[in-house]
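Morning run. Coffee first, then this:
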Amino acid sequence: MSELFTFSGLINNGHTFIFLFHAILIVLIALFLSKAATRSMQIVPGNLQNIFEVYLQGILWMGKDVIGEEKARKYLPLIGTIGLMVFFGNVIGIIPGFESPTANINFTLTLALLVFVYYNFEGIRAQGVFNYVKHFAGPVAWLSPLMFPIEIISHLSRIISLSFRLFGNIKGDDMFLMVMLMLAPWLAPLPAFAILTFMAFLQTFIFMILTYVYLAGAVALEEEHH
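And here it is:
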């Protein structure tokens, strides 16, 4: 049914093409808006610059309570970029004629794997391979044969948690909106648009805060080790 609800379906109604089209589109939107916001920085910011400044300050405020201000600033580029990709990926599907790339498991799984690899890399870089792997065994030596596989499964489950939570929520939102537009294409969907916009913000926040939490776990291990 993608060809009935996406403009890109007029070019090619293949699901892979439609997904890639919208994934590339949100990247271009994020790059364009970021460039426009920073093209002529002013002491008294314009509307777009002000929006991005509030966005970045919000990320720092969110991360400061989780990981500390210094680390929040260090990981700001990662969290900020993920936030833009997830938000635009969520909200574009609310516009009739477009599809959310975050409603595709390939997109959300890629983001989840990126977060997984990065926070483990940070832990290994800070402590070394041996010390980082050692913490999976837990503080009690005789429980290590039990704790080690549990911790490994727990960390691997984060990939599923991050990817499927975002994918499932946005896919469900898109299907709900599609049904509403088919049944009552004019006034009835208006409350649905408000709810789906709120969900787009909420799912973006959840993905960002969980990324900070996972990074904080690796940093806390480093500080505990020292």
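Residues 113 and 159 are 6 Å apart (CA to CA). Good start to the day.
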